[in-house]
Design goal:
Radius of gyration: 39 Å
Distance between the termini: 114 Å
Number of helices: 7
Number of strands: 5
Mean pLDDT: 82
Strand order of the largest sheet: 1-2-3-4-5
Largest sheet: 5 strands, mixed
Structural class: alpha+beta
CATH topology of the largest domain: GMP Synthetase, Chain A, domain 3
Strand content: 5-15%
Shape: flat
Amino acid sequence: MSQKQTAKAKTNASKKGSFLKRVKDGKWHWTTYVFIVAGILVLIPALVLSVISIKAALNTGTPLFGNRYYGDLDPSISSAQMETIKTNVKAIGNVESVEINLQSATLRVNIKTSETVTADQYAVVYQGVYDQVIAVLPVADYFTANPDTSKNQYDLEINVFNINPSDILKDKDGTVRANYIYFVLVKSSLMAEPKTQEVSVPIDAAQAEALRQKVIDRDNPPAAETPAVDTTGE
């Protein structure tokens, strides 16, 4: 072994002995603490991310359930209350059938009337339905949001028509029966009073007619012309 290699070996041994002595004596250089702290700071987020990744992998394909109305809709509308409303509404004059459902925090009451009922008689029908609803479900309790607590409540929608809308859509010629009448009464939880509109009468008649004509043209394309047969060569 050369003198250079011997000196290097002695130096390494000296450093090793010095390090062991410091460990034995409980004395560490400040850089040692820096490396330890840095290692811990790196290790903690790495462990957290690892745990999150493992949980996400294990829960892959598992649906997440939630309730966007948590803390709202209090008091809630019960099935018994809906049945009571349905029974009371059936007793209103000119009402042929009643359908009531509760979806997405909206209570919908669909009323089919006789085709003999005129448009000016509809106010009596939808107002009578509205009165029966709020008699069972007071507006202040069920259909009015509380701005102080930011608590949302139900919306109310009453549809009154003499021809089922699905039957109207079956008319392939695009025409609408002259006696078709459809009123909608809406009361959201943010509205002070309900609003009513006759949706069977378009706000812009010209635009409605143009759209109706487009549907007719789409569903009834022109027949393809048969090419003329050239008989000059015969």
